[in-house]
Amino acid sequence: MPYHRADTSAQADKLSGIVEESDLYEGFAPHVETSEIKTLDFYNLPKQTGKEPALRSFTEIQQLLQQGKKHIVKNILRENSWPINSPIRSQLWPQLCAQHLTKSNVLDGFYWEMVHQVFGTTELSEKPIMLPAFVDATHCLPYHLTGTGRSVADRIVNVLGYDCPDITYSPVLYPITSLLLHFMSEEEAYLCLAGLVGSKEKTFINQTKLQHEVTWKTVMQIAKKHAKSAVAYFQRICPGQKLERVFMDWCWWILAGLPFQHLVRIMDCYFHEGIKVLYRVALVILNLFHKECQSNNEWSPDNIKNDIGNALIKFCKKIPVSPAKLLHAAFSIRGLSTQYISRIFIKTEMLLKSRSVLNSGSKQLIKSRSSDNLPTSQSQVNIQMMSHTLTIREGEKSPGHRAIAMGVYPIHNLKSQVCKNEDLFTLWSWLPVRITMYQPVLLYTTEEHGCSLTTFYVRVEQHEPTLLMIKTCNNEVFGAYCSSRWFERNVKDDKGQRQAYFGTGETFLFSLYPERAKYPWVGIEGDRDLGHSSELFMAADSKMITIGGGEGQAIWMDENIRFGKTDSCKTFNNPPLCPSGDFEIRVLEVYGFVGI
What PROSITE patterns does the entry give (predicted)? Predict the structure, then answer.
């Protein structure tokens, strides 16, 4: 018999903490083996004072989401300890995941059409299904799913792999699928996963080996600051064991270690806030484990030094705090903002990418003011060959609009008002390799669209990345590759304040005349803490735009896109991009890339 969320809607708002025995498992889907689930863990529950606020209902949360009050919803999810068997999750989790869906027009029945396309039938096979290569076979955690439930999880993961071929490595995807299936139908679980995987604003599930490695290294870097004593203790008791080995399995402390009731409460918050919830929980686990190591012989140095990673998972299985206390501790960690985590993540990602290039021997890191900046004769040939598939034409127009087409004019015939063809070849060789696979489109030029920052934002702000090229009245040519949307100038942090700077370490500066040079982010050159002033990539408001900061601004332009100034800055370690420092803009061109 199929499971329908509507069947539980009447119960979803009945959230009393006291549950009748006959209704003990009313919140779970039919493909769950409920006999092993502990619904109430009395020794961990705080004493009732009679003053506890009533638990919030799904209807209240749904209304807040519809009103865009995500911050209030975040606090509700953190504070409301719904019972493990509460029917609210059959509606709450799908609603939370639906926020992140990029395909808002997914048609009813889409999932079952995909199932039929992949398997030739919608009947659930009794034979085992071969799982996609991105699944970690050692961590296909079913939790409390029945045999049928596991088969359903296998099928969902296969269909998702078919629909999302870009997923190449995602060990946590299967456990998340299993958790979703405890509270909803197969189709709803698939739609939830589609939302989590496709989310653009927040990260939920890593989908490549690079992302996976960057994530555990990010957790390790954060732990060195926010769980400093624990990390130092581990290094002291087992100096011969690399710390990396411990943190590579950080997600399994949570997903494979913690009791089910803890895990479900963590998911309540995770489906709204993203992977940063797991970062916080991991830090609390480290600190609690370190504390236990000081007082409990079970976790003495002699017992854990040979395998700290496994000891951590065993510790998590009998963690000495309730789900509520665990989350309270996690969200009480100060100085762990989304912006801070993002900076660590991006820096780690850039370092890994740069080392990968060095190790491959196929490319070299490009250093400022170096002949290494310039493309070799062979690379120019390669670029020109590639350029025959990268074409630009005047398109179906709103006034002044330029579009992309195949086979009209190759890129070396692009009529740029800023730079020459050979400069375009050089600039193309400096772009991230994946970007050179997309076709450029002229988004904005002062020659056609006028000199207005407002117009600039209207035409450019939703594109990512963008390429800015400036020609001054003294014929200097320089600019920047900007890795993030200019719209991010409007994005607010957790406190409701606009962020001053945004962007990532892929942003770089360049000069094409009178000399050619590329100035990459200084953080790409070494694994060291460079400070906030070296991570000031992009800033903008209604009066100006800035690229690069820290003891100077690499590029600054006024609201009329007429005058600007350039100086050396810590973010890119660049000299002024024109000799005088101040400049008057003759032409500004901004390019985007089609298909990204």
Answer: TLDC
Of 205-209, 275-279, 385-389, give the lowest mean pLDDT range: 385-389
Split at pLDDT 50, 70, 90, the class of 548 is very high
Which residues make Cβ contacts (< 8 Å) with residue 393, sequence separation at least 6? 402, 403, 404, 405, 408, 409
Q: What is the pLDDT of residue 115?
A: 93
How many other C-beta atoms are found inside a 10 Å radius of the C-beta of residue 334?
6
**Residue 379 — very low, low, confident or very high, per pLDDT cuts 50/70/90?**
very low
Q: Look at residue 481 and give its three-state secondary structure.
A: strand
Q: In this structure, are residues 451 and 505 in contact, taking their beta carbons and an 8 Å threshold?
A: no
Question: How far are the Cα atoms of 194, 401, 426, 431, 555 from residue 574, in angstroms, in the given order?
Answer: 42, 34, 18, 18, 11
Tokens (6 digits) for 238: 């087992």
Distance between CA atoms of residues 133 and 247, nearest Å: 23
Q: What is the 3-state secondary structure (H, E, C) of 370-383?
A: CHHHCCCHHHHHHH
Residue 514, preceding peptide bond in cis (omega within 30° of 0)? yes
What is the rounded distance in angstroms from the CA atom of residue 259 to the CA atom of residue 256? 8
Q: Are 13 and 59 in contact (CB under 8 A)?
A: yes
Residues 230-247 pLDDT 10s: 999 888 887 766 788 889
What is the CATH code for 209-355? 1.10.472
C-alpha distances (whole Å) from 166 to each of 160, 210, 315, 389, 438 are: 10, 13, 35, 23, 16
CA distance 535 to 548: 8
Regarding beta strands 508-513 and 439-445, do their DSSP bridges make them parallel or antiparallel, or are they unpaired?
unpaired
Q: How far apart are CA 515 and CA 45, in angstroms?
A: 69
- Mean local confidence (pLDDT), 409-434: 73
Whether the pLDDT of residue 22 is over 60: the answer is no
Is residue 90 classed as helix, strand or coil in its secondary structure? helix
**Dist CA 186 CA 200 (whole Å):** 24
| Nearest Cα to Cα of residue 89 among 263, 260, 267 | 267
Could you tell me the pLDDT band of residue 435, with boundaries at 50, 70 and 90? confident
- Alpha carbons within 13 A on the beta-carbon side of 32: 24
Residues facing residue 467 across a β-bridge: 481, 591
DSSP codes of every residue in 261-317: HHHHHHHHHHHHH-THHHHHHHHHHHHHHHHHHHH-GGG-HHHHTT-HHHHHHHHHH
Amino acid at 208: T
Q: How wide is the angle at C-alpha 237 spanned by C-alphas 234 and 243, nearest 5°? A: 40
Give SS3 for 508.
Answer: strand
Q: Out of 141-150, 237-246, 332-341, which region has the weakest mean confidence (pLDDT)?
A: 237-246
pLDDT of residue 352: 74
In the block, tokens 């940063």 appear at 276
- pTM beyond cutoff 0.85: no
The CA-based angle 408-410-412, given to 5 degrees, is 145
Q: How far apart are CA 405 and CA 397, in angstroms?
A: 13
Q: Are 368 and 574 in contact (CB under 8 A)?
A: yes
Which residue ranges make up each domain of the chain?
58-198, 209-355, 421-523+531-594
Residues forming beta bridges with residue 513, ordered by sequence position: 477
Is 575's pLDDT higher than 80? yes
